Amino acid sequence: MRVIVSDTSCVIDLHKAGLLEEFVCLRESIVFPEPLFDDEAISITKAEKNRLIKLGLEVRCLPGDQVGRAGQYYNRYRQLKIHDCFALIVAEETDKSVLLTGDKRLKAIAHQHGVRSHGVLWATDKIHDQQLCTLGKLRQAMRILLGDPFVYVPEHLIQTRIDRKYR
Length: 167
Fold this sequence. Notes:
The protein contains 10 helices and 5 strands. By secondary structure, it is an alpha/beta fold. The chain has one domain (about 5-130): Rossmann fold. A 5-stranded parallel sheet has the order 3-2-1-4-5. The chain is globular and about 45 Å long. The two termini are about 30 Å apart. About 35% of the residues are buried. The mean pLDDT is about 95.
C-alpha cells in the first residue's frame, strides 16, 4: 500500500476546504509526523485531531536518529523549516511513500533525495477518483481555495477543476 506523508501546508489547505476527513479516508495510508501534528496544525482542534486519528490518520513519532537527520537537513537546506525536514525524513524512510507538500523548495529537495512529491490538488484528485465526496463538495472546496489569499496554488489549476474536472 502506498503511504502519503503530509507536511502542514496541504493539511491546512484541505482543512480550510473541508476535505480533510475525506483525505484521511483515502485507500492509501496517511502519515503525519508527530511534531507537525502537535506544533504546526494549530488550526485543527483537538476534537478534530482525535476524529482524524479514529478515521485512520497515523501520527508518527520520530526516533532520535530521525530527529538528528532532520536537524542535519535543516542545517544543510536553510530554506526549509525544521518541520519540513521532519516530513522529508519520514517520507524518505517509508517504503512506497509520496510526500504531500505545497512548498516548491521542499518538493525540489525531496526530488533530489529520490522522494516523489505532489501538492494539494493531487490529493483532491485522489478524493475525486475514489469518490469520497460529491462533485458539488469538491467544487465548493475549490472555490474556497480559490478565494483564500494564503493558498499558493496557481488559480488556473483550481479553476480548471471547477470548470472541467469536478463536473
